[in-house]
């Protein structure tokens, strides 16, 4: 049974894979390097055990608390953004549209609403006086 | 391949360490330090980071040793500690800088490989996620069976095969570019 590179890369431990290695230079080179690198043994740093014991004795880092504060701030900011956008979408925007319809094309933003309301009241009063 | 199960610990030392004996825990560190450090190096490819990660593994071990069931083998349980700590460590780190292949490197020498080959290998592996690096480490350094790696990584064996495949493929592509090897 012949095996291509993809099959070899998946099943390197089979006898077919070993046969593939004899014919494929790239796969043979890859396997040789990985195995050589796997045999490399580095000596751990001399102070490793001391450093671990010191870390165990050290009081717990404050970082988790800081992380919690950031999470809370992010959640609060998200709530504010949702509240503001809901307010504009459901409360302010319809009023602006309604006033724009009733008063005319003069209202383009929320800042103009009080003026537009004043205009609306004036029109209503005028209509009332006329009748 | 030279096979050893890795992360084995003396039961007496382990029991004493679980009981809060600091000297025993220190002895446990000494017995596991080499393998933990070498696995940490295979995740970080940097000696300073490997040292940090090794410390973190042992601190995590100290804090969780009470949860270890002495009726079960220690090595698979400890491998899960190493795996989880290594993945969390890599998540907190910035993406690693991959040196251009032409630049001289300070990677430790590897018997049977030229410095150029070591750099190519480590540069290729550095571009892989921590999970893939761990699988390569468990397979080629610790010589574990795929089923044991799957248990350590808490994933199906098929996933381990995929990760190992991608790691080999990434390296093969890089080698073909550099050395012009052809299948």
A few lines on this structure:
The complex is a heterodimer of chains A (131) and B (183). By secondary structure, chain A is mainly alpha-helical. Chain A has helices at residues 5-10, 15-23, 25-39, 48-57, 63-103, 113-130.
Give a description of the structure.
The complex is a heterodimer of chains A (131) and B (183). With 131 residues, chain A is mainly α. In chain A, 76% of the residues lie in helices and 0% in strands. In chain A, helix 2 packs across helix 3 (25-39) and helix 5 (63-103) runs parallel beside helix 6. Chain A is elongated, with a radius of gyration of 37 Å. In chain B, helix 3 crosses helix 4 (74-92) and helix 5 packs across helix 8. Chain B has 183 residues and is mostly helical. Chain B has two domains: 1-97, RNA polymerase sigma factor, region 2, helix turn helix motif (Rna Polymerase Sigma Factor, Chain: A, Orthogonal Bundle); 113-183, Winged helix-like DNA-binding domain superfamily/Winged helix DNA-binding domain (Arc Repressor Mutant, subunit A, Orthogonal Bundle), CATH 1.10.10.10. Chain B starts with 10 loop residues before the first helix and ends with a helix. Classes of the chains: A mainly alpha (131), B mainly alpha (183). The A-B interface holds A 4-6, 9-13, 24-27, 29-45, 48-49, 51-53, 55-56 and B 1-2, 22, 25-26, 29-30, 33-34, 36-38, 41, 47, 50-51, 54-55, 58-59, 62, 108, 110-113, 117-118, 120-122, 136-137, 139-141, 143, 146, 161, 164-165, 168-169, 171-172, 175-176, 179, 181-183.
